[in-house]
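Moderator note: this is an archived Q&A kept for reference. The question asked for a predicted structure of one protein chain; the sequence and the answer are reproduced below.
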Amino acid sequence: MKLPQIRIGNKVTTTPIIQGGMGIGVSLSRLASAVANEGGIGVISGVQIGFREADFDRNTQAANMRALAKEIRKARHLSPDGIIGVNLMVAINNYADMVRVAVEEGVDLIISGAGLPKDLPGLVKGSDTKIAPIVSSAKAAQLITKLWLRRYDYLPDLIIVEGPEAGGHLGFSFEELEGEDKPKLEDLVPEVIEALKPFEEAAGKEIPVIAAGGIYDGEDIAKYLELGASGVQMGTRFVATHECDASYEFKKAYMDSTEDDIDLILSPVGLPGQAIINPFIRKVKAQKEKITKCYNCLSPCSPKIAPYCISTALIKAVEGNVDKGLVFIGKRGYKIDKIVSVRELIQELSIVIH
């Protein structure tokens, strides 16, 4: 199979893989640069990225902006010729400021989900930074494309279609995910490709579609390329790499998990999420945890009704206190049984698709 290249400005991938952005602190400069050096697109997660800054508790937004700039610079130093992206959730309260920092630092690509990034083209105007929304349906792909065209005369540089088997927050309701007609990524990808055709024909420009959510091996990648995708986004597989920025204990939680351990939870921000059902999740399901510090990080979250602070839970997990924290994981993460290098992983994934 001839591998497609993903073009970001004047740079092109040699493998059609985007490493998914994983927060808090799971994918930072070390992982992103390693993936970029192997010909993929390495992605830094911007959510609460300043958690290690000394003033994070009292000056959260400034700490996040400062840390984002630092991580982009580190990644660029480690991979001067690679493609470096940033994942910024639309739901973060200082979204526009974080986009501005990423643009000022010359990041190649900004990926945005957890809401439709309606104003993103205006925020990157005049820069070389490319932009990609994450959608979970053909309708959402049409909506954001039409909106960007009308407001900014801008087509998405690529669109990521994320299915229900992804780790972390999902763009579906519980009813959709638990119903008999549960969405399937293999259906969503062709539907989005078809929905974008009129826009591509009118503009004379291709909009690459990237498949994401539950993609585990080379056979999965080949399957979605054959369905017409230009590439795939993978997060979970990159956690069990030496270069992943999370603690060893976090990676071990993936390796120790079983299929029955991975299930849907209701996140404090009101969205379904896919996570390991560990002692922490069982505890907060039974009794709301007292929130002593609110970071005002995500707009849909209210500390008065939230069962726990998602920032605190994610930080505890990534730093190694996994039984007292939240561990997001893709639906097939239980299959992981060892830690490898990014190079080994990409070589393994490439065997089938080559």
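Archived answer notes: The longest helix spans residues 60-78.
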